[in-house]
Amino acid sequence: MIKKFSETPIFFEYKIPSENDINWLKNNSNAINVEQNFRIKSLHTYKNMKINGTQDIILARQAVVLKLNEALELLPNEYTFAVFDAFRTIETQFALFRYIYNQQKQMNPSKTHSELYDITREFVIHPNETSRYAIPPHNSGGALDLTLKHEDSFLDMGTDFDAVTPASYTNFFEQEFNENFGISKERWLLIRKNRRILFNSMKYVGFTNFQVEWWHFDLGDCMWAKELEQNWYFHSMEKSLK
Ligand SMILES: C[C@@H](N)C(=O)N[C@H](C)C(=O)O
Ligand SMILES: [Zn+2]
């Protein structure tokens, strides 16, 4: 499978879930720890960054974790998933929006509030913008931010997690090699291959990807539904945790 995944370009076209798939999602909606398997590790990224409202355990819907395990089983044993983040409280979602807005403000001091807001909103969902997403995907427990490791090394995905740049667009390295980007052709093709492995393994088991972030995947939430033009099923998971 890994050869097939690495050779298949990134296409944002997905199989529409069947009624059975939907019933299965609904029947596996309880909150569980993503670390159900020694091949899935939480990085606790936002807790380490001291973003407000983070939790000690990285949770997600059971369906998400089961599908993540399925994706992993399609890959050789030396591959593991490193999860940056999954379920997120609304407090963290607000804090993250503020964090990235402030980071962009520092990097672009001449930009107006509205320009900075638009840059930020491309990469982070504002919890008050319910006309875009009724429930922020991570708050529903249906979203995952993750990358792949091979043995002890992170695969080269071309950008850092949460890098606010077009190079984070999932299919950025599908375009022809461009030497003005400042990396070798060899590295360009390696990044392309690594992103394909992550994207195609997740897509194969039913996840959709947020097209501007190579690391973000959804199942059963508003973002998944928008991508598939279907209904969404996972409401806020926060209420059920209180
Ligand atoms: C901030 C980034 N890691 C992320 O999760 N972005 C998506 C779009 C979100 O905010 O839900
Ligand atoms: Zn995300």
From TrEMBL:
Molecular function GO terms recorded: D-Ala-D-Ala dipeptidase activity; metallopeptidase activity; zinc ion binding
Reaction(s) this enzyme catalyzes, per UniProt: D-alanyl-D-alanine + H2O = 2 D-alanine
Residue intervals passing through the bilayer: none
Cofactor binding note from Swiss-Prot or TrEMBL: Binds 1 zinc ion per subunit.
Needed cofactors: Zn(2+)
Record-linked Pfam families: Peptidase_M15 (PF01427)
Annotated binding of Zn(2+), by residue: 138, 145, 216
Active site: 213 (proton donor/acceptor)
Keyword list, A-Z: Cell wall biogenesis/degradation, Dipeptidase, Hydrolase, Metal-binding, Metalloprotease, Protease, Zinc
Tree of life domain: Bacteria
This enzyme's EC code(s): 3.4.13.22
Residue numbers marked as site, Transition state stabilizer: 88
SUPFAM superfamilies: Hedgehog/DD-peptidase
A biological process term (GO) from this entry: cell wall organization
Family: Belongs to the peptidase M15D family.
Function: Catalyzes hydrolysis of the D-alanyl-D-alanine dipeptide.
Protein name as annotated: D-alanyl-D-alanine dipeptidase
Originating species: Silvanigrella paludirubra
